[in-house]
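Database export, one record per block. Field names are fixed; values are copied verbatim from the stored entry.
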Amino acid sequence: MKRRSFLESSTRIKRSRKPGKCPSCGHSPLASILYGYVGFDGGLQKKLEEGRIVLGGCCVSDDDPKWECTNCGQKVYKKLPEESSKSIKK
């Protein structure tokens, strides 16, 4: 997997729902990022191996990305409802 440099990844991409493909490289599908302490089982292991889920770590904040491209590492943030309404009013 190619990792993005700081400069490449410094632009925050926000979407109101999960994109069908990566907005940077076009890879499909994006993986959901799972945060917190997780209990490993066969189902989770399979999703990790398939690239449907990536682990985001145990520290959770209000400003964490929701999805990640397993090809280029681009992170995509969930657009909050108030952000969506601001863009509509413009």
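Remark 1: The CA atoms of residues 79 and 85 lie 10 Å apart.
Remark 2: The chain has a mean pLDDT of 86.
End of record.
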